[in-house]
Design brief:
single chain, alpha+beta, 2 domains, globular, disordered C terminus
């Protein structure tokens, strides 16, 4: 059984660098958001998080609106400490770039869980490989390009030195022109590779940060620890129920009564605990099944296999449920995935 993780969200502070770029192009950001059916007020609170689907809608819609095939690269060039919330300010007060990116990996959940990085050490080099949660929707190349472009921008801001990677790789095909990639990264950029990644010289980790302040670092890190601890507490019961649902998904009679019995609490107690976290059991079960169904369809599982994996009595019942969730049949969804989620260079 594939693991279903927590919902994928993004801190609205990440949008600030996108909005800075759009403002530099004289774009009316509120009007753009309304054209995408997004309430501008919903993305203005620095403490708010938005679903990954909303973030992708805004990002890809903005890229299309300004007709910029290199939107992610250019958005990354407007990154600043505030773009990464408390995480950015914590990094700004570390002693070295190595310490800053160690903190970045440890506390990255503060700005979202859309894309994560895995460090691979080899021959005095550090290779950062980007990956997404298994249940994430397919993302356009702007996501990966903005992540790497932002990271390079932050290294330069923090150190005050125009440092560059040794190499950057992307999984999608080589575009007609690579000039913008070479300008932004100032290093060889390869396409059609197995990973989206960035390779750095190990010595960059020892490069000092120009505004390091150990007292402020301690303050910001304590804040970050408390922030993450609160996030964990906020979802404690939802996480526990999600784990049980995943282990019982092939049970077509799965119910809150069965979950409550396994957790040794009454149904009413469990309902109250979930409601305190803003969750209704039936919605959680449907959401898990829907997201896994879409992933299985993208991975070319048969309808019959998905029916069994998700605990439906027969394929016709699954097809009916999927149509209700998404507005299209499983076949229509599978056939539309490549067109809807094209990762080809623009």
């Amino acid at each position: 059984m594939n693991k279903f993780s927590e919902p994928i969200t993004v801190s609205v502070t990440v949008l600030s660098q996108m909005f800075l770029y759009l403002a530099s192009l004289k774009v009316d950001i509120d009007a753009l958001l309304r054209s995408l059916c997004v309430d501008p007020e919903s993305v203005k609170s620095p403490d708010a998080y938005i679903p990954i689907e909303t973030y992708l809608l805004i990002q890809d819609g903005a890229a299309e609106y300004v007709n910029d095939p290199y939107f992610g690269l250019h958005m990354g060039e407007f990154a600043e400490a505030g773009s990464w919330s408390i995480l950015g300010y914590m990094m700004m007060n570390c002693k070295t770039l190595g310490e800053a990116f160690e903190k970045s990996g440890k506390y990255s959940r503060i700005i979202g869980n859309m894309i994560e990085g895995r460090a691979e050490l080899k021959f005095k080099k550090v290779r950062i490989v980007l990956f997404t949660p298994p249940h994430a929707p397919k993302m356009s190349r702007h996501c990966y390009e903005s992540t790497l472009s932002s990271s390079v921008r932050m290294m330069r801001l923090l150190s005050g030195v125009h440092v560059s990677p040794l190499e950057v790789t992307f999984i999608y095909p080589k575009p007609e022109s690579t000039a913008e990639y070479e300008r932004v990264f100032c290093c060889p950029v390869k396409f059609g590779q197995k990973d989206n990644s960035m390779t750095l010289d190990w010595s960059l980790g020892n490069m000092p940060i120009r505004m390091a302040n150990s007292a402020l670092l301690e303050h910001f890190e304590k804040y970050a620890q408390d922030f993450l601890a609160q996030m964990e507490r906020d979802d404690e019961h939802t996480r526990a129920v999600t784990k049980i649902i995943l282990s019982r998904l092939d049970d077509e009679d799965l119910s809150i009564q069965k979950i409550a019995k396994e957790m040794a609490v009454s149904v009413r107690t469990l309902q109250n605990r979930l409601e305190a976290e803003g969750v209704i059991f039936s919605d959680l079960l449907r959401d898990i099944r829907e997201k896994l169904a879409k992933r299985y369809l993208r991975e070319n599982y048969s309808v019959e296999q998905i029916t069994y994996l998700l605990g439906f009595s027969e394929p016709s019942v699954f097809r009916k449920a999927f149509k209700k969730w998404s507005g299209v049949t499983p076949r229509e969804y599978r056939e539309g995935v490549p067109a809807m989620n094209s990762a080809q260079p623009g």
